[in-house]
Design a protein that fits this description.
This protein is mainly α. Helices cover 75% and strands 0% of the residues. It has 6 helices and no strands.
Length: 151
């Protein structure tokens, strides 16, 4: 009886610990999340694949801001949102420059420089998006301008 009293707390603690998770089930769940992430990244990139040469920066920014996250992985979504914000900055700079047409040259130069910087940021953030998509095994869709040339 003394032995039982001395080991009773340990036995109770052992019973309270849930059984170890099935390692195969854990791996299956991890692969399911990764596959869902791949599908969501591909969906977002397909929706993002607009013809920016035919749209204003504001039209592009509005279109891609409306793309829902779904179950996209955090790393991809954070990079993609940085890309969206770069397009929004480009849209604001483009609108500012258009509003200054015929105005003071120095102000126009600053607005154009801000637009050029935003364009560079668009490229840099999209490269991050592309790299993360690649780590998930997602291929980039063919841009509309290139797709038109292959027909």
């Amino acid at each position: 009886m003394r032995i039982l009293r001395s080991i009773a707390p340990a036995l109770l603690a052992l019973l309270a610990v849930p059984a170890a998770a099935d390692p195969i089930a854990a791996l299956d769940e991890q692969e399911n999340r990764r596959e869902t992430g791949r599908q969501e990244i591909a969906r977002i990139l397909a929706a993002d694949n607009v013809d920016a040469s035919r749209l204003s920066a504001r039209e592009v920014a509005t279109a891609i801001r409306a793309i829902p996250r779904g179950a996209a992985p955090d790393d991809f979504w954070n990079a993609y949102q940085a890309h969206v914000r770069a397009w929004e900055r480009a849209a604001a700079a483009e609108e500012r420059a258009q509003g200054l047409i015929g105005g003071k040259p120095a102000e126009m130069e600053r607005a154009v420089a801000a637009f050029v910087a935003a364009q560079a940021e668009i490229s840099a953030t999209f490269e991050q998006v592309r790299q993360i998509a690649g780590r998930y095994g997602v291929e980039m869709p063919i841009p509309p301008a290139e797709a038109a040339n292959t027909i």
